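task queued by scheduler; priority normal; single chain, no ligands, no partner chains; default sampling; output format set to C-alpha cells
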Amino acid sequence: MANPHLYAILFSDRSAQGPSDVDGPREVVETYRPLVDAVRRGQRAGQLGSASDPEVIALSVRGTAHGLVSLVLSGNEPPELAVADCYERVLRALVTGWRGSEESAAGLAAP
C-alpha cells in the first residue's frame, strides 16, 4: 500500500509492455510457483482438501488478493467498507472454504 506504483509494475497489462513468451513471462511463473508449492504443502499436511488441483486453489487465493488490493488502489472500495480492514478475514474465509470436505471440493471440479 505504501508503494502502489510497484503493484502497477507487477500486475499491469503485460501485453501493453511488449511481446511475451507463449507460456507467460518468467516473472509470473516465479512469483506464482511459491504459492502453488504452499498449497501442495497444505494439502500434504491435511490443511487443505486434496481433491482439488493445487493450481486452482492457488489461483483463487491470488485472484482474491489481487482483486482486493486493486479495489483499494483504484479507489473503488465499496462505500463504508475499508477493504484493508477486512483483507485478512476475507483470505482466511477463502482458505477455510478450501479446507472443506472432499465432496464439496470435488463438486468444484471442472465438468
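post-processing summary
- The chain has five helices and no strands.
- The mean pLDDT is 79.
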